[in-house]
Amino acid sequence: MLIVMRKDATAEQIESVMRAVEERGFKARPIPGGDRVSIAILFNQGAVDASTFEDLPGVKEAIPVTRPYKLVSRETKADATKIQIGDVCIGGREMVIIAGPCAVESEKQAMAIAEHVKKSGGDMFRGGAFKPRTSPYAFQGMGEEGLKILAKVRDTFGLPVVTEVMDLSHFDMVEHYADVVQIGTRNMQNFSLLRRAGESKRPVLLKRGMSATVEEWLMAAEYVMAEGNPNIILCERGVRTFVRHSRNTLDLSAIPVVQRESHLPIIIDPSHAAGYRDQVLPLGRAAAAVNAHGVMIEVHHEPEKACSDGAQSLLPSQFDELCRQMRAIDQILQPSDELK
Ligand code: PEP
Ligand code: MN
What we know:
The structure is a single chain. This protein is of the alpha/beta class. It has two domains: 62 residues, 2-Layer Sandwich (Alpha-Beta Plaits), CATH 3.30.70; 257 residues, Alpha-Beta Barrel (TIM Barrel), CATH 3.20.20.70. Helix content is 34%, strand content 18%. α6 crosses α7. The longest helix has 18 residues. The site of phosphoenolpyruvate has 8 residues, from loops.
């Protein structure tokens, strides 16, 4: 249930509606809109009687929310969420390009790649310090040392940094260094990690589980938002299918579906969808054409020496070309701003 307040509702009226909700054993969450406040009712088991609230002073109407996800739903908040990270805005008209290596491997490596990313017009830098690897014997990431290198990249190039948190016990450390905390595909339904992310002041980049439906994915985002963090960036990174020609199958149709269902920004990671660098350029173009709010691309200056995901990492010159092509497509789409 969503209680929509009148435009001229006073702060006291909003307070007293929230009190009325909580007195009935539910949780009230105010949602500031363009010109009015709405109040979402959370943790109700079953339907709530609208008439209980409709007669309260300052209330315009009480409308049922039909979707299982509430806070992330367009029903609750019609206008698109824009997330400001330093000078970068995700969810606005401009497509945001996040790029960097799969993993931070050394200061020299991260700095060399960041220099290319910056030069090509990338907006943010990515790099894993804690890596979720299939094999326990594979490179697991540099840990805190890697996070410190990311902080150095930010200070040197002015690029905000995105990095993955894999484990609840590392959350404080990762959010201390990162501008955006990433939750990877394997942890999309790690509910304690999602709840902790919901308490964070940092925006969260939530990747789609490799076999998750859009509904499960939005419910995962709901976990984060229900704890109080409204800044969530969804990331489509391909789902597992029967094909062998690519690592995953990029589900492009998820983008218009998510944009219809949710006000949250959604970006695409063509690198993990593709698995091979020759597919990343066309999929990156598709990301721009489908009107995603951004992309996240793996780039490496020496991919043959990369500790992880070298095969899907673009060479700096290829990344440069991809940026040029994506920006050109984004430019063509600019007038149709109702799409974003
Ligand atoms: C990554 O972005 O480095 C990563 C591990 O991605 P995913 O969780 O999508 O596999
Ligand atoms: Mn990777």
